[in-house]
Specification:
Layout lengths: L5 E5 L2 E14 L1 H4 L10 H8 L9 E12 L2 E5 L22 H7 L9 E3 L12 E4 L2 E4 L5 E5 H6 L9 H7 L1 H5 L3 E4 L4 E4 L2 E5 L8 E7 L2 E5 L8 H4 L11 H18 L2 E3 L8 E7 L2 E6 L1
Length: 292
C-alpha cells in the first residue's frame, strides 16, 4: 500500500509527497551489483532490509511524485510511471492502473491547475504522468503546465543507446514537446525561476540533474535517482544497477551529499521508503542519514 501523504514546509514552499506505487520485489543483490552483507554493520542492514523481525529479503522502493506550492505556483517533480504505458522491457512498469490522479486530487491538486512539471531526468519512472491516453492518443496530463527537463536527456534519445527505451520518449515526452509545452535546461544547469536551480549530477543518466528550491534561508533538493536507499549515503561508492556511467554517478552522489550536508538542505527522494525525505550530515570522512 502507498504510504500516507507527507507534507513539509521549506521556507515559503509547501512540499507534499504523493506515492504512486511501492515495489517490494527487488533484492539488494539485484539493485546493487556490489552488494555484500559481509562487513556491513547492523544499522546499515536495517536501512536496506528493515528490522530482523520483519524477515524481509527485498528492498522497498517507492515511486514518489512531489507537489511543490511556491511563489503562487503549483509544481510537480518527477511525475512517476503513468497508466496504460507499454513497457515490455519491465513488467514492473507495464500497463499499470494506479489511482494516482485521485491521490493527487485528494492532496488538493487538479491536473489543470498544475503550472510546472519539473524532471530530474527522463527515465521511465520519472516521466510517465506527463501524458495520459485520451481518445486513443497520448495527450498532456497537465494541459496548462510547462514541462521542464534537461536537454542532454532529450539528446540521448536520438542516440543508438536509447533504442530499447525509445517508447518512453515517444509516449511520455514527445507529446508535450509537440504540444509546445516543453522547456529544456542546458547541460550546465542553472536557474529556471526565482529560487529554483537545476544542479547537474550526471551519471545515473547522461543529463541527470537535482533540483534545488531555496526560500527564506532554507533549501529543498529533489534528488531524483542519486540514491535508491539510504545505504548509498553511507556507501556512496555503491551504484545501483541502473546507473549508466558508474564513475560519474559516484562523483555526482558524493558532490550532492557534500552540498546537502553543508547547506543543511532537506533531500526529497524519488524512491526511498519511510518518509522519503531526510537530512545528510558529515560523519568523519563520510555521511549519515536521518529521515525527517
Amino acid at each position: 500500500m502507498p504510504s500516507p501523504v507527507e507534507k513539509y514546509k521549506v521556507g515559503d514552499a509547501t512540499i507534499t509527497r504523493v506515492t504512486e506505487t511501492v515495489f517490494t520485489t527487488l533484492t539488494p543483490a539485484f539493485l546493487y551489483p556490489g552488494w555484500t552483507q559481509s562487513g556491513l554493520p547492523d544499522h546499515l542492514l536495517r536501512l536496506v532490509l528493515g528490522h530482523p523481525g520483519e524477515k524481509r529479503e527485498h528492498v522497498i522502493l517507492n515511486v514518489n511524485v512531489w507537489i511543490v506550492e511556491f511563489a503562487g505556483r503549483i509544481m510537480l517533480v518527477d511525475p512517476g510511471i503513468g497508466n496504460d504505458k507499454e513497457r515490455p522491457f519491465s513488467l514492473l512498469f507495464h500497463r499499470l492502473r494506479t489511482p494516482f490522479l485521485s491521490r493527487l486530487e485528494a492532496a488538493g491538486v487538479q491536473p489543470e491547475n498544475v503550472d510546472h512539471v519539473l524532471m530530474t531526468h527522463l527515465h521511465v519512472d520519472h516521466v510517465g504522468w506527463n501524458t495520459r491516453k485520451i481518445d486513443g492518443r497520448w495527450a498532456p496530463t497537465f494541459p496548462n503546465a510547462k514541462y521542464v527537463f534537461p536537454q542532454v536527456e532529450v539528446d540521448f534519445f536520438s542516440t543508438p543507446g536509447s533504442e530499447s527505451r525509445r517508447v518512453v520518449f515517444e509516449d511520455s515526452v514527445l507529446p508535450v514537446i509537440e504540444a509546445g509545452l516543453a522547456e529544456t535546461i542546458g547541460e550546465h544547469g542553472g536557474s529556471y525561476l526565482d529560487g529554483i536551480v537545476f544542479l547537474p549530477t550526471p551519471g545515473h543518466s547522461p543529463g541527470h540533474m537535482c533540483i534545488s528550491i531555496k526560500s527564506r534561508g532554507e533549501e529543498a533538493i529533489f534528488a531524483g535517482d542519486i540514491s535508491h536507499n539510504p545505504l548509498q549515503v553511507y556507501q556512496p561508492h555503491w551504484n545501483s544497477v541502473f546507473c549508466a556511467d558508474p564513475d560519474r554517478a559516484r562523483a555526482s552522489r558524493r558532490w550532492i551529499l557534500d552540498y546537502a550536508a553543508r547547506q543543511k538542505a532537506i533531500l526529497f527522494t524519488a524512491h526511498l521508503p519511510e518518509t522519503s525525505a531526510g537530512l545528510v550530515t558529515r560523519r568523519g570522512d563520510g555521511y549519515e542519514w536521518r529521515y525527517v
